[in-house]
Amino acid sequence: MSKNSLWWQNGIIYQIYPRSFMDTTANGIGDLNGITNKLDYLADLGVDAIWLSPIFPSPDVDFGYDVADYVAIDPRFGSMVDFDHLLKESHKRNIHIILDLVLNHTSDQHPWFKESRKSRDNPYHDWYLWKDPSPKGGPPNNWCSIFGGSGWEFDTQLGQYYYHMFCTGQPDLNWRHPEVRETLLNVFKFWLERGVDGFRLDVFNMYFKHSELPDNPKKLIGLRPFDRQVHKYEVSQPEMDPLLNEIRQLLDSYGSTYVVGETFLASPEHTASYCGQDKLHAAFNFELAESPWKVKRFTRAIKNWEKAVEDHAWPNYFLNNHDVTRSSSRYCRGEDDARAKVSAAMLLTLRGTPFMYYGEEIGMRDISLKHSQILDPVGKRYWPFNKGRDGCRAPMQWDDSVNAGFSSTASWLPVHPDYISRNVSKQKTEPGSLLNFYKQLIQLRKEHPALNQGSLSILDPQNKSILSYLRQTPDENILILLNFKQKQITYQLPKQIADQNWRVLFSEKRQIEELCQEQSILMTPYETLILVAD
Ligand code: GLC
Fold this sequence. Notes:
The chain has 534 residues and is α/β, with parallel strands linked by helices. Helix content is 26%, strand content 16%. It folds into three domains: 7-106 and 178-211 and 235-442, Alpha-Beta Barrel (TIM Barrel); 111-163, Oligo-1,6-glucosidase, Domain 2 (Oligo-1,6-glucosidase, domain 2, Alpha-Beta Complex), CATH 3.90.400.10; 454-533, Immunoglobulin-like (Sandwich). The protein is globular. Alpha-D-glucopyranose is lined by residues 62, 65, 102, 166, 202-203, 262, 322-323.
């Protein structure tokens, strides 16, 4: 399809959680045809690729992240015909499709696991990490599940334990087994042959565990047993490097495809070490999304990521995904979107591929649920200390009709009650809406090579309020000023750029093309100002 081999660098990638995007079958769950119906909306917004959270058959212990068949579509989402249609219609609009491959573990309902637990000599037994109890009895080592409790589950019939980093319904695969490796690489091929453009790899740096399964070293500090361990032996083992190389070669043989990995428990440097020419195109670094509303912290996150990727990889940024509280809920006060605009402007003008999460563009807030409504296994286990991830997975707010236009029937998770005033259809008609703000900035990013390809230099913060940086190509020089405070602030142009003539390229408050001749600029509260050198 697209001739533009740099689509994943220049473009915007939009994550859809299919259960919550658009329901066309009136079962309260979003589906593939729903996504196809909304492609014009996505094209108009300016997205270049869609990352679909898992669409494969799943018992939904972890809502799709427990896969029971890697080469089929969950019937609740539609059929393979619907998938091919979505792919074709997306490609027509120059929108790429990225699938979420969850290959660290399967569902315990996957036929491979069902076979593997039948007997110790079943051909599938070694496809998973089955071990005898330790000599003293009990689990083979001290590894924990991040979702709580031991990482080992005992099967009384077999007299062995299997390992699971997540729920007991998500047994980890044994990637050291040659047939597992070959079968999973064939999963990539299956979808590439159908025409998909790339993959997001769920917790890929967990595929290999240390072959001798040693105990993890202990740490003194941490709330839960999981947090009081150094995760030395169950993540980030060196065997991952040659595998990434193989995956990349496979993808490259299909043209301008893309693979982005979700790193688990890794520093920015370590995350970046998985990216490059013969590795992943990109990996997720969580520092920006985890930053509090402080210029200093955002600056640090950007500098760290820039330094980590250096020249060997292309950076990427996100503020939201299906595992974290929505940025609007983290940063905004009430229903006011001022901070959502500042953070959007940052995301869309940094050097690196911006990832968005459905509903971010209209500032969807997390829903709050009662204990009895919680569905996420994390929330079920840790309520009320951690209410889990349902909050950020509520149905998309399309309009002010029943169920926010998402479904004609009650949705799987409740719709946020603010949908009457916060929805796509309303924001489309309001020039100053967050949706139009996103659209304009996405457009600006596409039109200006300095914004999508240029270098980035952060200007030293003059105070704690303004984040300012330059994006530059040999022909274009763009200055971004973001006021993170709800007060007027005078920005003094730093010496190195003060002798240039700056014109307004984007502002909600000022005339476009207006010349800024003063050495200082009075920034209004939460203002985004983008200037271009004459
Ligand atoms: C990743 C997913 C998360 C899932 C976990 C187990 O972190 O993003 O949603 O629960 O992996 O697959």
